[in-house]
Design a protein that fits this description.
Elements: H1 3-15, H2 19-25, E1 37-40, H3 42-48, H4 52-62, E2 69-75, E3 78-83, H5 85-99, E4 113-117, H6 132-147, E5 151-155, H7 164-175, H8 178-184, H9 186-202, H10 205-218, H11 222-246, H12 264-272, E6 276-279, E7 282-285, E8 295-298, H13 306-321, E9 325-331, H14 335-347, E10 356-361, E11 364-365, H15 381-399, H16 406-421, E12 431-432, H17 435-438, H18 446-462, H19 479-501, H20 505-524, H21 532-556
Parallel strand pairs: 4-5, 4-9, 9-10, 11-12
Antiparallel strand pairs: 1-3, 2-3, 6-7, 7-8
The structure holds one RNA strand of 77 nucleotides.
Length: 564
RNA sequence: GUCUCCGUAGCUCAGUAGGAUAGAGCGUUCGCCUCCUAAGCGAAAGGUCGCGCGUUCGAAUCGCGCCGGGGACGCCA
């Protein structure tokens, strides 16, 4: 039952405005004592030519209260609606029971595809802490869209093209050993890359060699391709291990090299539509009309660029997936780049240009400034994850020495903490990497949510709870129970808003709201009460809490252990 | 220089397409485990919402201008 809707239609009957509009005006009062919903009458003051408090009083007087609404009181310029606690508890908890793991979801998406371009690792480069946001934000959106009835298509747009692979081959042939690399993996490739950049200082001719080798890759030369594919395989193997730990999956690994033969179309279409312009030897699309620098499509030597490739990829994805939206989870540094080529797609006449969305996020830096592969000061994601697991294991040894399978739980909680760190604030915030912050398990953190979940599970286990039978919802009328119910009731809207804004943190905050309310409830009210009716109802509430936290953490990509 | 994002408590951040006395967490100080997991709960202290003008019945939220910071600005991705 949607109380907001029923209140809106009751209001509509009294004042003659459209219920849909009124529903948007309804808000949540700042404190629960005021009520569950508030209708501000200020907006009506002008048309009705009366003071807001007068309007509120009149409306409240003439209103016929819908079922489930206990009272409508005029206070200040507001009408405050208080729901019948029993009706609310029943509606919310029975909905959670009925929907189970689907709670907070819907068929809103109607099975339409949503492409999500995220993580997008670079071949022969380390997978470092800077890749965490795109990876976990993208993976969370992937699940959130699926929960809302879309079909997510996860795309890892590999950085597997460019002259750096020519450099890699040169470095490998001069100083590399196959066996060392097979053993040491990406770290060894990076060493070669760093060495190349040292040596090229004194031997500029290396760059010519590198260009030649890259040309051989482009031309499909067997030896060049073998090495190129080998570098790729080594990188992907390592990256796959991290994805496995994080529970992240992709439906496509079509990266930059995949589009190599698909860029002619971009140039052809641009030319056909007269959008290309020769400028300083390069082919560009002039965007001065839109207050942007030109988008370069072809270099003066005829080679394609980043933008060309992105446009080719967008065309391909539209053809292949017919997406309703195509998200690019990429740091805000590339803001202009996306605005430019989105505009070019629009100028090409494709109406779906509006469905291309840059989901930008802040950058990760170290306390000493930005990370750099060449400087070698970056923090590897694997190291962060293992440190988190180690710390968690130590805590478990101390707090729950009798726990079975400590290693597994330590992994779940440690990784949960790391993943959480990228999902609990708005995306746009910059992050200064800090070991203490990322390994914090107190307060509003992943482990806090996990702990609350485990706590709820523990009670249910001890009570041998079975989710059936009659429940007297009227006994859930204390402030703490009411607050938990309100938080659970708010969860579905949070998931939907998280999708609309592409902001997973809205789910994180909703989970915290449930967890925090439950912990207060847990402390103040004894769930295993002597009175059977009270006990049954509180267990029902505990079960709903468990379910919602489980769903929320699941959407974020965080495991919810039953004990910890 | 131009464009863009950001500026809320000591720190890190919320603040719902302007609304009722600005909220959390961390940190600090002080309380709470003979009872369901103390990775928890409670209390105290802490804010000219960067500054100014404007729009409005009402502005942290919208507009303009400053100040401070991040980022980007043709042949890298």
């Amino acid at each position: 039952m949607d109380f907001k809707q029923t209140i809106a239609s009751a209001l509509a009957q009294s004042c003659g405005l459209a219920a849909g509009e009124l529903e948007n005006w309804l808000e949540t009062p700042p404190s629960p004592e005021l009520g569950d919903y508030a209708f501000p009458c200020f907006k009506l003051a002008k048309t009705l030519k009366k003071a807001p408090p007068v309007i509120a009083a009149e409306l409240a007087g003439t209103l016929t209260l819908p079922e489930g609404v206990a009272s409508a009181r005029a206070e200040g310029g507001y009408i405050n609606f208080t729901l019948d606690k029993r009706a609310l508890a029943k509606a919310v908890l029975e909905r959670v029971s009925a929907e189970g793991e689907r709670y907070g979801g819907s068929d809103l998406g109607g099975g339409k595809n949503v492409c999500i371009d995220y993580s997008s690792v670079n071949i022969a480069k380390p997978f470092h802490i800077g890749h965490l946001p795109t990876t976990v934000i993208g993976a969370a959106l992937y699940r959130i869209y699926n929960h809302l009835g879309y079909h997510s298509v996860g795309i890892n747009h590999l950085g597997d093209w460019g002259t750096q692979f020519g450099k890699m081959i040169v470095a490998y042939k001069r100083w590399g050993e196959r066996e060392t690399i097979e053993r040491g993996g990406v770290d060894e490739l990076v060493k070669l890359y760093v060495r190349y950049h040292q040596e090229v200082e004194t031997q500029p001719s290396l760059d010519d060699e590198a260009r030649a080798w890259f040309k051989r890759i482009e031309d499909g030369d067997a030896e060049a391709l073998e090495l190129f594919d080998w570098f790729k395989a080594i990188t992907l193997k390592e990256v796959a291990e991290v994805y496995d730990i994080l529970g992240v999956r992709f439906d496509s690994y079509a990266g930059e090299s995949f589009y190599n033969d698909k860029m002619g179309r971009v140039v052809d279409e641009l030319r056909k539509k007269n959008l290309l312009k020769l400028d300083q030897g390069a082919q560009i699309v002039d965007l001065s009309e839109y207050k942007m620098p030109p988008c370069i499509i072809l270099r003066s030597d005829g080679a394609t660029l980043y933008a060309t490739r992105d446009i080719a990829a967008a065309l391909y994805r539209k053809d292949t997936y017919d997406f309703a939206k195509c998200l690019y989870v990429v740091a805000y540094q590339q803001d202009l780049h996306f605005r430019q080529w989105f505009k070019v797609v629009e100028l090409l006449g494709y109406p779906w240009a509006k469905d291309l969305i840059h989901v930008s996020f802040g950058m990760v830096s170290g306390t000493e400034g930005s990370f750099s592969t060449r400087k070698g000061n970056m923090v590897k994601l694997r190291d962060v994850l293992s440190a988190a697991c180690e710390k968690t294991l130590a805590i478990i040894e101390q707090k729950s020495p009798d726990l079975d399978d400590k290693e597994t739980v330590a992994g779940q909680v440690g990784i949960g903490a790391v993943v959480w760190s990228s999902l609990y604030n708005g995306r746009i915030k910059d992050v200064v990497f800090d070991w203490d912050a990322i390994l914090n398990f107190d307060g509003e953190t992943g482990p806090y949510a996990q702990y609350t979940h485990a706590r709820a599970c523990s009670v249910l286990r001890k009570a041998n709870f079975v989710p059936s039978g009659a429940v007297d919802y009227a006994v859930l009328d204390d402030a703490e129970s009411t607050a938990v119910i309100a938080a659970i009731a708010a969860f579905p809207d949070a998931v939907k808003e998280a999708m609309e804004k592409n902001e997973p943190y809205l789910v994180s905050r909703a989970v915290i709201a449930v967890a925090s309310a439950f912990n207060k409830f847990y402390y103040e009210q004894r769930i295993m009460a002597d009175d059977a009716a009270v006990r049954t109802a509180r267990l029902k509430l505990t079960d709903a809490t468990r379910t919602v936290i489980h769903i929320g953490l699941g959407l974020l990509g965080i495991a919810a252990p039953e004990r910890m």
